[in-house]
Amino acid sequence: MSQQQYKISREVVLGVGGGIAAYKSCELIRRLQDHGFLVTVIPTRSSLNFVGAATWEALSGRPVQLELWNNVHQVPHIAIAKKADAIVIAPATADLIARIASGRADDFLTNVVIASPAPLILVPAMHSQMWLNPATVANVEILRERGVLVLDPAVGNLSSGDSGVGRYPETVDIISAVESSLNHTADLLGRKILVSAGGTREPIDPVRFIGNLSSGKQGIAVALSAASRGAKVTLVLANAPEVSIEGVEVMHVQTAEQMRTALSAEFESSEILVMTAAVADARPSHMSTSKISKENLLNIEMIANPDIVQELGRQKSGQVIVGFAAQTGEDWIVKAREKMSSKNLDVIYVNDVSNGAIFGSEETTGLVIEASGRETPIKNESKYSLANKLLNIAIDKLGK
């Protein structure tokens, strides 16, 4: 079975133009990294007069590509262009702005720019007269009409000794622009999130098992959302396709006992547990090593599986636990409230799965219930959207 790849939008190409403000982008790299971004630096040749390639490599932890003609067989400008989630050029000089506006691709950086569909953010920094020159004004207008985000330079002292518009903008404003362009926030940076997903299977014999319809999609959405927001994520995944999410440790399990062992080992060091997995309530008391004949299948002795979330709820010491409940019948909400109370949950998401609804779907409908009594209805939302809402509630309850 092939592995399913999930991509987090946090690859930033940082282009550096040939201006004295190039040194300020050293700080920009650090702050981008603090917000969970991975940065590849592409300096122009002229910018190396201010900051050398060795500095960019040391700060980014990645090699710096300067020439189109290095490793040509790998077509590096196309590879980088495809991988980029955003391109930030800081500082963007008057010359570099002019070249991009005219569609030129005469060095490695401009080749990447013209080959990439990623959002382009220009951070101008130059003398006031250069910024206000009619040619620069026209070029900026052209780029903005094309959808390029061109930040306004700050006002203040300039390297020439003059004062006015043209200063490199504040790093916090650049970061804000990048996050807005990618709808990205790093509010979970450094947090440890534990997620369970999928449905456990309890073997009857070598060819049969007791299981359920859980696809694991909701738990994968939670793991992806948490990782994209900077969290350190462990995903305990039961009987779902092989997945790969950058920055997420994926632990594959099959049975309830295996899931119990994996979650118990990670719970103490975690701050938030999101328990989306559908754990089988019972298992055969004995697994036959050979296939059971049809007539003997009618009398299989069953024993209860451990109630994993209840055990962890009793053990928690400051963690926030988000539970899930798939219910049927008219009293499905009442049952969810009872489950939340009996298992010491902080939040529970409940949905009515009558007639197989929700399982395997890309969307979900249900009700978020908090221990405080607050309820939030969810109507035909993506599972990723629900994941973000649940994480917002959990981080608020964590209160740190």
Strand order of the largest sheet: 14-12-9-15-18-19-20-21
Give the number of domains.
Answer: 2
- Low-pLDDT runs of 5+ residues are none
Helix coverage percent: 25-40%
CATH top level assignment of the largest domain? Alpha Beta
**Derived structural class:** alpha/beta
CATH architecture of the largest domain: 3-Layer(aba) Sandwich
Radius of gyration: 27 Å
Short account of what is shown:
The chain is α/β, with parallel strands linked by helices. The protein folds into 2 domains: 8-182, 3-Layer(aba) Sandwich (Rossmann fold); 192-284 and 302-398, Rossmann fold, CATH 3.40.50.10300. Helices cover 33% and strands 27% of the residues.
Give the arrangement of secondary structure elements.
Layout (H helix, E strand, L loop, with lengths): L3 E3 L4 E6 L7 H11 L3 E6 L9 H8 L15 H8 L2 E7 L1 H8 L6 H8 L4 E5 L3 H5 L1 H12 L3 E2 L3 E4 L5 E5 L3 H12 L9 E7 L3 E4 L2 E3 L6 H12 L3 E7 L4 E3 L2 E6 L2 H12 L4 E4 L6 E3 L17 E3 L3 H8 L4 E8 L4 H11 L4 E6 L10 E8 L4 E8 H16 L2
Parallel strand pairs: 1-13, 2-3, 2-4, 4-5, 5-6, 9-12, 9-15, 12-14, 15-18, 18-19
Antiparallel strand pairs: 7-8, 10-11, 16-17, 19-20, 20-21
Helix pairs in contact: 1-2, 1-8, 3-5, 4-7, 9-13
